[in-house]
Amino acid sequence: MLPLFAWLLFASGPNDPQLLVSGVDSLGAPTRDGRYLTHVHEGNLALRDLARGTDRILTTRAAGSREFAYFSVPSRDGSQVAYAWFNAEGFYELRIVGAGGGVARTVYRNPEAGFVQPTAFTPDGAKILTLLFRKDNTSQIVLIPSAGGKVETLRSLQWVYPKRMDLSPDGNLVVYDSFRTGSTTERAIYLLSLDGSEERMLTPEAGSYLFPIFSPDGASITYCGGEGESLDLWQKALSGGQARQLAAGLGRALPLGITNAGKLFFGLRNGASDIYEFDYPKLGQAKRASLRFAGMNRAPAWSVDGKQLAYLSRRGAENFGQESRTIVIRDWGTNREREVSTKLAYMDRISWSASGLVVSGSDGKGRGGVFLVDAASGLTRPLVATHGAPFRGYPAVIGEAGILYFLSGGQLFRQGSTGNSEAISAGTKHNVLAMALSPDS
Q1: How many CB atoms lie within 10 A of CB 179?
Q2: What are the distances in angstroms from CA 143 to CA 44, 120, 223, 335?
Q3: What is the C-alpha separation between 345 and 390, in angstroms, rounded?
Q4: Residue 16 pLDDT more than 70?
Q5: Residues 6+ apart with CB under 8 A from 120
Q6: pLDDT reported for residue 13
Q7: Residues near 240 by Cβ (< 8 Å), separated by ≥ 6?
Q8: Which of 318, 342, 313 is nearest to 328 (CA)?
C-alpha cells in the first residue's frame, strides 16, 4: 500500500471547498487548532505548517532504508503524534513522537498484527484508537496505551477493513463503518460504546455510507455517502432524526479530520488505472479495453482461447487500505461485459487457465491464498488457503496439465491434483508480485 498523493482541500462550510495545500498525501490528519497537518515526506513523518507552507520533519529515515512512516494522527492538544512505522523486519509498528521532534517511542509492535492504523487519541492522551490488521486477516478495533502496555480489543471484524473510525470528544464512543448486515457491497455506520454496553447502526437508510468523523461537540457525525467517484457529505445527530446534506459531488474524497472550529479537512485522490489495447507490434494509439467504469480497472487476463478478457474492477468508494473489487469479463466477439459474482473478500490479481480463473486474494473466513473461480457461475473453491497467508494471497498460475504454481515467502511452489505442495526453487529476498508460464508449459 503506497501513499496516496492528493490535493488537500479545506471545507469551511456547505458547498464551498477551497484549495488549501498541495503536494501532500492523505495519510495524516489536522491538529485540532487547524494550524498543522501531519503527512509523509520522503518516507519520514512530517508536520506541515499550513500558514507558512513549511514542513517540520519529525523522524529520521536513513537513506536507502526500507523503513518508512505511514498513517498518523496528532493528539488532541497537538503536543504529540502517533504514527505507523514500517520497520526493518517487514511489518508496521505504532510509534509516538513529540510535535517538536525528538526521540520516538515504540508503543506497540507485533509481527502477527503486521498493519496498524492510528485514528484518534483519547481526550487525556493516554490511549490511541487503532485499527489492527492481523496476519490471519482479522481486523480489530483496539485501544493502545500511549505508554505501551496491554492492548484493549473493542471489536473484531474478521476480514472487514473499516474505511474510517473515530473517537468521541468525551472518549466514550467509537464510530466506524463496515459492511451492512447481509450485504457485501453496501456499507453502514455503527456506533460502539467503549464499555460494550451499546452498538447500533446510525445509517439504516439504503445506500453506502462511510468515513464517519465526530463533530467537535460530539453531538453529531459527519460522513460520506454515494458512489466512489462522486461522494456527498452528510451530517447526522446521534440523537436521531434525518441526515442533513452538507455538500454534493465532492469527488473521490478521503476525509482526514475536523478542527475544533468545525472545519473539515479532506483529500481528493487523483490518478486512475485502466485496461488498454493496441495492435502489436504497431505501437500506435492505445484504446481503452474496458467498456464501463473508466479508471477503476486493473489486472487483465486473457482466456486460453483469446476470445475473452477478464479483469478486476473497483466498486464502491476508495479507502486507505483494501478496496472492494469484482471480476468483469468482456467477450471480444459480442463486445459485451458481464460481472462474475464471487464470495471472496478481496481479490488482488487474476490469471486464466483451462480450469477457470485463478484468483489471488482472501475469502470471507479470514484465509488468504489462491482460489479457482468458474468464469460462468462464479463458483469458487480454495486451492491454497490458510489463515497465515497474506490477504492479497499468492501470485499463481495453472499450467495445461492442471499443475498449480504459486509464490510464497520468496519460494516457488508446485501443487498437483493431490493438493500437496512442494518447493521447486530456493528462497529469494525479492518481493515477486506476478508470474507467468511459457507457451510450451
Answers
A1: 19
A2: 25, 10, 22, 51
A3: 13
A4: no
A5: 73, 128, 129, 165, 166, 167
A6: 40
A7: none
A8: 313
The 3-class SS string of 16-76 reads: CEEEEEEEEECCCCECCCCCEEEEEECCEEEEEECCCCEEEECCCCCCCCCCEEEEEEECC
How far apart are the C-alpha atoms of 403 and 39, rounded to whole Å?
46
Report the Cα 279 to chain-centroid distance in Å. 35
* Residues 155 and 140: beta-carbon distance below 8 Å: yes
pLDDT in tens, 245-292: 988 888 778 889 999 988 888 887 766 677 778 776 666 677 888 888
Residue 57 pLDDT exceeds 90: yes
- Which amino acid is residue 324, in one-letter code? S
* C-alpha cell belonging to residue 166: 473515530
Hey, what amino acid is at 259? T
Which one of 173-177, 184-188, 330-334 scores highest in mean pLDDT? 173-177
Cα–Cα dist 140/142, whole Å = 6
**Mean pLDDT, rounded, of the chain:** 85
Residues 6 or more apart in contact with residue 130 via CB below 8 angstroms: 82, 94, 108, 116, 117, 118, 119, 141, 142, 143, 144
Mention every residue, 6+ apart, whose C-beta is less than 8 A from residue 30: 36, 37, 50, 74, 256, 257, 259, 265
Summarize the confidence of residues 96-113 as an average pLDDT: 94
**Residue of 41, 10, 13 whose CA lies nearest to 253:** 10
pLDDT in tens, 291-316: 887 777 888 999 988 899 999 887 76
For residue 230, list its beta bridge partners. 227
Arithmetic mean of pLDDT, 46-52: 92
Strands (E), 162-285: 165-167, 173-179, 187-193, 199-201, 209-214, 220-227, 230-237, 244-247, 253-258, 264-269, 276-277
Q: Would you call 187 helix, strand, or coil by DSSP? A: strand
More confident residue, 221 or 247: 221
Assess whether pLDDT exceeds 50 at residue 201.
yes
Q: Edge-to-edge strands of the sheet including 68-74?
A: 68-74, 80-86, 92-98, 105-109
